[in-house]
Design a protein that fits this description.
single chain; about 260 residues; alpha/beta; 7-stranded parallel sheet; binds NADP nicotinamide-adenine-dinucleotide phosphate
């Protein structure tokens, strides 16, 4: 892909499935990649330029990590706001949505993404075009009664993306901002969710996965690598005229 060689990128939530695959894909495209995650699960990824403890809900931590990357003198070009979390329960009755769980989801998924965009904004696009890719979800388009907070937070990410895209479109060099919306991707997040669905329904995880696959037109969950390739494209100059867009990666689930 054009425009990734030598570009400096930060990927948050990089210990997880999609984050790790994205770091590896950007490295393979020649980017200088910094990986971050919570201090309790720092990623160990061959070829990463730096590994940073970054709780995305902490404004001061964002400031420190971005300053540390910029201090290395190679600039800063690409932010992948990937860190995310779903709540721990399967909600069956909307009157039982827990306020603390709601706030956790908004903090990690929406506040975290906003803080990332806000912190990198002054340093992005200083000498070269900049790009932000925000990892939202299919849940920003369809209701998620099993986890209402998650869908609400991810919809906020989509709308935030459009605002930063418009603000960056007129900058010279331009800064682009897009969101990606994975459907069912078989990472730890989905495996944990499938386990909770199995507990709640009394079915096996295999039965839950078979049921999910039957509801996906392509007949299977996606892989982290399939999401990472779309993220890398949006970060690259091959997507140089794409901004403010919400790109769905769902095996056809929302096609009809
Ligand atoms: P994952 O494997 O659970 O990875 C998410 C990563 O984010 C984990 O390493 C997690 O750490 C980290 N994280 C959680 N809270 C954080 C915080 N406050 N600060 C920094 N890092 C934090 O999940 P994934 O499937 O790769 O998800 C990646 C992104 O895709 C998320 O934004 C998710 O919402 C989105 N997504 C996933 C799917 C899917 O089907 N998998 C579908 C739609 C959207 P811990 O493990 O320690 O919590």
């Amino acid at each position: 892909m054009r425009g990734l060689e030598g570009r400096v990128a930060l990927v948050t939530g990089a210990s997880g499935g999609i984050g790790r695959a994205t770091v590896e894909r950007l490295i393979s495209e020649g980017a200088i990649v910094h990986a971050s995650d919570l201090a309790s699960c720092l990623p160990d990824i061959a070829g990463a330029r730096g590994v940073h403890a970054l709780d995305v809900t902490e404004p001061d931590a964002w400031t420190c990590v971005i300053a540390a990357i910029v201090d290395q003198g190679s600039g800063f070009d690409i932010l992948i706001n990937n860190a995310g979390a779903s709540t721990q329960d399967v909600i069956t009755d909307p009157s039982t949505v827990d306020l603390d769980a709601w706030r956790m989801s908004i903090r990690v998924n929406a506040d975290g993404c906003f803080l990332g965009c806000r912190t990198v904004w002054p340093v992005l696009g200083a000498a070269r075009p900049g790009a932000i890719v925000n990892i939202s979800s299919l849940a920003s388009f369809v209701g998620t009664p099993f986890d209402p907070a998650y869908g609400a937070a991810k919809a906020a990410v989509m709308q935030l993306t459009r605002s930063y895209a418009l603000a960056g479109a007129g900058r010279r060099p331009p800064v682009r901002c897009n969101s990606v919306h994975p459907g069912v991707i078989w990472t730890d997040m989905w495996k944990r969710h499938a386990a909770r669905l199995a507990d709640a329904s009394g079915n096996s995880i295999d039965a839950i996965q078979a049921d999910l696959s039957a509801r996906i037109p392509m007949g299977r969950p996606g892989t982290a690598e399939e999401v990472a390739s779309v993220i890398a494209f949006l970060a690259s100059e091959d997507a140089g005229y794409v901004t403010g867009q919400a790109i769905v990666i769902d095996g056809g689930m929302t096609a009809g």
